[in-house]
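Long-time lurker, first post. I've been practising inverse folding by hand and with some scripts of my own, and I keep getting stuck on stretches where the structure tokens seem ambiguous. Below is the full token string for one chain I'm working on. Before anyone asks, I'm not after the true native sequence, just a reasonable design that respects the backbone. If someone could post their per-position residues I'd love to compare against what I wrote down in my notebook.
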């Protein structure tokens, strides 16, 4: 049994009300959550009476397996193993989809509701919006024409993009139709506008008060003469009590003052900056002018509302008619069911003992509304607001904060703090606390770090078995950067880190393995480099390769420019052209492209000869493409892609272009996308246009390139590192500016301020809403960046090393002015002077020679020849044993192609073994394999499978005539009056050995069961089934 802390024990055992668990980094929240589930099961709650929600499929899968392992260790809970696969341990999206599927009939929706590709929907939205604009132009709509003429210059493309962006934000509202209908009355009533002007005025006065604070602070430093000058100049402004006074008194200028200290100069500059900022904001003569400017935008907003209403009605109709939904739609429809049909809501409520939510800080408003409808004072929330870093995915950290603050006062539930950290050394935790007690509080960051969130050292093994005589404190590697020098900052930092890692490896730097409780030498995979952005990862890779330090890049990469995508798109166009008998210029381009590709690798000379002799119809490429084109009239796009993959042996050939796993993932993506086209009765031309749009309209589709577990240094973004931990963490690129936008879009949507539009008065001007939004936006962005820095530092188990240039940049304790992680460190650097190590760049041997290192292509070292390789099979002599197997034996060395086929066969066998043939679940399954299983299950031979006892991988051993026989039957279906045995083969089912194998199975099962046995061979790739006739079995 683990030694739970008191707080962990409370988090496991407390019950009877809503509970929020604030679990700091490394506090063991996942272990606590799974132990709570186990405790519930031991008390008689069934696992399918718990709703356990996570934010990713991977997290849900991991949680389910963790719970499964715990159950297996408890014999008394064996019955729960039968329930766990049907239990709701899943994502918000998947659970809301299951609710919609269960109660679909209440909204007159089909049961087979599916999730479509969001890019496909986006393309449709753009098409609908284009049609709306054309209609409005044709009918000469006055409101629309004024709107366009006021805000468009060259064309209306920019306006269309603004409207699409606004609509994408509106889609997060579950009541967007009603919201649009009521918008004008709610946002343009006098009371609301006057309240917003008051809010603006308070903000202005707050900025004036900031100037007062700086004046007061400078008074303690300045001599009397200088201070009197300053006060005389600023007094009218400092005494202003409202917007009008501030506006009138802004015509001040800073007096000339002499012999100021550096600190006085900094404060004077801050005062001056504050005055400039007020001058930039106070552009309206009076509050009445502010009111009129807001009202003048009403006609423009009305026009926007009209267009968005049309767009919403048409896209909603399109989705309904085509059964084509996104997860936002599913969530909205599920909430509608829960609101409009009380019996459904109560049925779900009554079936749940508890709702458990992991990573609660990442919840959005829609998910919170959904949970509120099915909860009954039984929600258990685990998270850490300090690790809320997904605002760009619409996460709302204040949902967590508001609950935490209320439950702290026992209002609506109770709160439990897990602040004891078991991940990191004491020095690491002390360093992190020293930073965040200064920079994070309720106002900025969203958590009162000093009061409730400081981490407490918990892993005492570091001080016992893991005690080391090394410096485990924070280190800041400070270098002096010369902007006119030869090297860029990113180059310098990469060389510093690579050389430091080499030195640590060569000097046997020690780390402590807290799982094995041993001290060992550091290896490359104990190091990680964390950065805010991935733009310099490739540069790091080249420098590390130059210095012979293995480095693996961990990031999601765009597939738009990938060869495999382009080749498949061109193949589809080629096939469609042959189908149309339209061998035009585009056909020739596509033929040449595919002929040159890795699939055929034809030389330009060969291609020229083909077209010169007009012999392309005799070419293998054309013949294969034509054979597929002949099936276009009766196969769907998904089957067509599978056919292309099979005919052109794409899986077998992708090794030629490298990144095999990544390219298989891209093929999976395309197969997934094509499923949406089938659901919406779209054809090959729709799919081709979709692929063209991906590359021409700027859509960015990214996939995760999994690096595996190689012994190499890892480099990744901070977002990518969340949930991971490393012994030694380097932080570089701290100088990189945050992407804090000035909100330059003319038209913006915000939940608080609505649709923000400029107005026209002798030019285009902004209302106060643009300013108010910018204030909120910057504050929230800075808060999230502080939380992101917390996530970064808390990845470290034993050592944190920051690499930066501290000599450039201004120190400012005003956190709103943070624009980089370097700014954050500069604001607290006085507390860390003892941790600074100055790096002499001259001694680093930095060089540009790394640019000369080219990626090694080993094919370049192979001498080209026209000679064909003569492959001889080497038969291996083997001694016959008494033990016999019915399976075919491989007794020769195999080629790479045969090895690839064997791997695919094993993957298929495994998938067929674990798939439930009665209620198949294809989540997380490779698309190619999924489609093959679906084809198999559609076979007439399996139409009555529900009436059969199903045995998979049925193993048997028997003796006959002093010889032992062994066999494993892939699939055995036992019916009341007969038995079907089916053996899977990847491709070939014409082999005498296979027939002997099946007859051996038949003989044994018939002798054992006294029932008639039918035997079959099934070819997975060809999707054929062969009946095996009985033959007298000979000794094998």
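-- Answer (accepted) --
I ran through it position by position. Result:
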């Amino acid at each position: 049994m683990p030694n739970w802390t008191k707080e962990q024990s409370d988090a496991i055992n407390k019950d009877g009300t809503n509970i929020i668990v604030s679990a700091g980094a490394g506090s063991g929240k996942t272990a606590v959550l799974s132990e709570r589930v186990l405790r519930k099961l031991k008390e008689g709650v069934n696992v399918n009476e718990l709703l356990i929600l996570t934010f990713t499929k991977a997290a849900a899968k991991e949680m389910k397996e963790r719970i499964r392992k715990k159950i297996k260790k408890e014999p008394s809970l064996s019955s729960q193993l039968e329930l766990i696969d049907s239990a709701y341990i899943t994502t918000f999206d998947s659970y809301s989809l299951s609710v919609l599927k269960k109660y679909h009939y209440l909204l007159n929706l089909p049961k087979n509701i599916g999730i479509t590709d969001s890019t496909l929907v986006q393309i449709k939205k753009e098409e609908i919006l284009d049609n709306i604009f054309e209609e409005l132009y044709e009918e000469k709509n006055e409101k629309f024409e004024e709107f366009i003429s006021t805000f468009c210059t060259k064309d209306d493309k920019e306006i269309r993009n603004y409207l699409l962006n606004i609509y994408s934000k509106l889609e997060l509202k579950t009541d967007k139709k009603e919201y649009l209908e009521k918008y004008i009355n709610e946002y343009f009533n006098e009371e609301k506008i006057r309240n917003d002007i008051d809010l603006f005025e308070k903000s202005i006065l707050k900025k004036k008060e900031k100037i007062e604070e700086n004046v007061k602070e400078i008074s303690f430093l300045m001599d009397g003469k200088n201070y009197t000058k300053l006060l005389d100049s600023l007094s009218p402004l400092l005494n202003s009590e409202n917007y009008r006074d501030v506006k009138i008194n802004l015509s001040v200028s800073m007096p000339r003052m002499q012999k100021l200290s550096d600190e006085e100069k900094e404060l004077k500059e801050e005062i001056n900056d504050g005055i400039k900022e007020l001058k930039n904001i106070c552009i309206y003569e009076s509050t009445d002018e502010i009111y009129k400017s807001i009202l003048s935008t009403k006609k423009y907003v009305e026009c926007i509302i009209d267009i968005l209403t049309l767009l919403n009605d048409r896209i909603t109709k399109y989705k309904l008619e085509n059964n084509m939904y996104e997860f936002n739609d599913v969530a909205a429809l599920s909430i509608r069911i829960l609101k409009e049909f009380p019996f459904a809501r109560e049925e779900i409520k009554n079936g749940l003992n508890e709702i458990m939510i992991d990573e609660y800080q990442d919840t959005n408003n829609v998910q919170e509304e959904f949970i509120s409808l099915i909860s009954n004072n039984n929600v258990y929330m685990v998270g850490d607001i300090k690790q809320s870093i997904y605002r760009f995915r619409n996460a709302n950290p204040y949902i967590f904060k508001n609950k935490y603050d209320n439950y702290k006062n026992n209002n609506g539930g109770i709160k439990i703090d897990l602040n004891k950290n078991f991940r990191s050394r004491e020095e690491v935790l002390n360093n992190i606390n020293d930073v965040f007690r200064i920079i994070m509080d309720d106002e900025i960051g969203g958590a009162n770090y000093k009061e409730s969130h400081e981490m407490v050292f918990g892993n005492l093994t570091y001080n016992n078995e893991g005690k080391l005589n090394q410096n485990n404190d924070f280190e800041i590697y400070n270098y002096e950067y010369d902007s006119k020098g030869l090297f860029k900052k990113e180059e310098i930092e990469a060389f510093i880190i690579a050389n430091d890692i080499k030195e640590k490896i060569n000097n046997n730097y020690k780390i402590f393995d807290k799982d094995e409780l041993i001290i060992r030498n550091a290896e490359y995979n104990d190091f990680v480099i964390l950065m805010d952005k991935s733009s310099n990862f490739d540069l790091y890779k080249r420098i590390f390769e130059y210095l012979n330090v293995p480095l693996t890049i961990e990031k999601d990469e765009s597939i738009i420019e990938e060869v495999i995508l382009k080749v498949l798109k061109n193949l589809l166009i080629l096939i469609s052209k042959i189908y149309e008998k339209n061998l035009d210029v585009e056909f020739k381009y596509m033929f040449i492209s595919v002929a040159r590709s890795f699939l055929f690798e034809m030389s330009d000379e060969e291609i020229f000869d083909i077209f010169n002799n007009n012999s392309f119809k005799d070419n293998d490429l054309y013949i294969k493409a034509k054979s597929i084109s002949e099936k276009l009239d009766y196969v769907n796009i998904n089957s067509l892609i599978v056919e292309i993959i099979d005919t052109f042996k794409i899986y077998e050939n992708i090794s030629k272009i490298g990144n095999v796993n990544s390219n298989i993932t891209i093929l999976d993506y395309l197969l997934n996308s094509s499923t949406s086209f089938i659901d919406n009765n779209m054809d090959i031309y729709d799919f081709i246009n979709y692929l063209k749009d991906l590359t021409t309209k700027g859509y960015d589709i990214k996939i995760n390139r999994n690096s595996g577990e190689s012994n190499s240094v890892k480099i990744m973004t901070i977002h990518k590192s969340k949930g991971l931990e490393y012994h030694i963490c380097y932080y570089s690129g701290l100088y990189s500016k945050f992407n804090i936008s000035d909100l330059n879009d003319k038209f913006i949507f915000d939940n608080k301020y609505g649709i923000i539009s400029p107005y026209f008065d002798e030019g285009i001007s902004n209302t106060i809403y643009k300013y108010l939004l910018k204030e909120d936006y910057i504050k929230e962005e800075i808060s999230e960046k502080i939380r992101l820095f917390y996530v970064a530092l808390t990845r470290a188990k034993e050592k944190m090393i920051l690499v930066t240039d501290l000599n450039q940049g201004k120190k400012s304790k005003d956190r709103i002015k943070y624009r980089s992680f370097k700014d954050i460190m500069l604001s607290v650097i006085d507390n860390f002077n003892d941790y600074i190590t100055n790096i002499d760049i001259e001694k680093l041997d930095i060089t540009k020679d790394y640019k000369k290192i080219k990626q090694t292509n080993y094919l370049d070292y192979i001498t080209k020849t026209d000679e064909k390789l003569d492959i001889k099979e080497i038969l291996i002599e083997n001694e016959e044993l008494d033990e016999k197997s019915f399976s075919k034996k491989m007794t020769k060395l195999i080629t790479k192609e045969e090895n690839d086929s064997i791997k695919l066969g094993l993957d298929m066998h495994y998938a067929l073994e674990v798939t439930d043939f009665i209620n198949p679940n294809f989540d997380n399954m490779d698309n190619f394999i999924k489609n093959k299983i679906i084809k198999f299950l559609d076979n007439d031979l399996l139409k009555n499978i529900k009436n059969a006892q199903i045995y998979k991988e049925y193993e048997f051993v028997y003796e006959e005539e002093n010889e032992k026989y062994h066999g494993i039957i892939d699939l055995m279906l036992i019916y009341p009056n007969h038995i079907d045995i089916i053996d899977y083969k990847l491709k070939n089912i014409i082999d005498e050995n296979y027939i002997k194998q099946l007859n051996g199975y038949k003989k044994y099962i018939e002798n054992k069961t006294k029932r008639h046995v039918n035997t079959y061979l099934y070819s997975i790739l060809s999707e054929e089934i062969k009946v095996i006739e009985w033959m007298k079995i000979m000794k094998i």
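A couple of notes from the structure itself: Residues 405 and 411 are 9 Å apart (CA to CA). The radius of gyration is 34 Å. Happy to go over any region you disagree with.
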